[in-house]
Amino acid sequence: MAVETATSPDGPTGDFKGDIDVNNNNPRRKDMESIAELPVLDKDGKPHTFKSLYAPADNETSRTLIIFIRHFFCGNCQEYLRTLCSSVTPDVLQSLSPPVNIRIVGCGQAELIPMYARETECPYPIYADPSKKLYAELGMARTLSLGPKAPQYMQYSLPSAMIRAIYQNLKAGRSAFKGGDYWQVGGEFIFDDGEVTWCHRMKNTRDHVEVPELRRQLGLDGAKPPLRKTFSSGIRRSSSELGRQLSDRRKSWSRSRDRTEKPSPDGSMMEKVKEDSAAEEKSERQSKEEVKTTAP
CA 98 to CA 268: how far, in whole Å? Predict the structure, then answer.
């Protein structure tokens, strides 16, 4: 279901409910020419032209997939890249003819790229477009709607993804406000020899194209991505291991207590010696008192 959109300098804008009304028409050549020289930043903050991400080198045949994500703390986009990277590896892409390159572009500050690469375990180059000019010129929208259903690529639950995102924000400190525009959504664009031949624009904050469909567009089969070790399963596994450790420790404490409470032969002998010594001291005190009493 599409919702009404409001026009703004940043592109179509939606609300919290329903899918935003965008299309998947390929950008026109003249539009691509107008944005080819716009800058994107690498992890070191160094600028590169947008064209350098997809233009063929030395007149060679080339194919490039550029994925535009949301802000750098978006748990949905992070999960999408984890699932994608587990299914579409660099070795698989280089075996295709022509080989395929993947580039990632986010709308936050470049200083967060190393964190993002670490959290997603993404082996592909990541860039930043904090101005969001590419997003606007390529027709990508702005919305906070989650969409009608959870996508297949989500192997984390939504609460787990939110908790992880909150943790990343807290850990980022002063950089927590540099992740990018929370309203901005992205999309996927395939370039063949420098021209867009296929694209998909997100209609809500989770509407990345599913991995099997993207595999087909890249010339692979439509196999589902493998199941990964998820954050929640890790929590359950850690809790189980912790429970076993506590149980073993309680048993160890119990055995130690039993050994302490159980008297040994040496312990009994020492107790007997103490009792005899106390009795002798008592008898000696009584004898002294009797002497004092009978003295003239």
Answer: 87
Location of structure tokens 């986010």: 106
Token pair for 187: 């999309």
CA-nearest of 100, 91, 29 to 62 is: 100
60 vs 193: CA distance, rounded Å: 8
| N-term to C-term CA, the chain | 119
Closest to 68 in 3D by CA, of 180, 220, 213: 180
Alpha-carbon dihedral 65, 66, 70, 73, rounded to 10 degrees = 80
**What would the pLDDT profile of 11-68 be if each residue is shown by its tens digit?**
566 655 678 889 999 999 999 999 999 999 999 999 999 999 999 877 688 899 999 9
Distance, in Å, from the CA atom of 89 to the CA atom of 187, rounded to the nearest integer, reads 20
Residue 80: is it exposed, middle or buried by C-beta count within 10 angstroms (0-12/13-18/19+)?
A: buried
d(CA 125, CA 192): 18
Distance of CA 48 to the CA centre of its chain: 27
Radius of gyration of the chain (CA): 34
| 95, 146, 147, 155 from 230: Cα distances, Å | 29, 21, 23, 7
For residue 156, name the pLDDT band (cuts at 50, 70, 90): confident
State pLDDT tens for residues 91-123.
Answer: 999 999 999 999 999 999 999 999 999 999 999
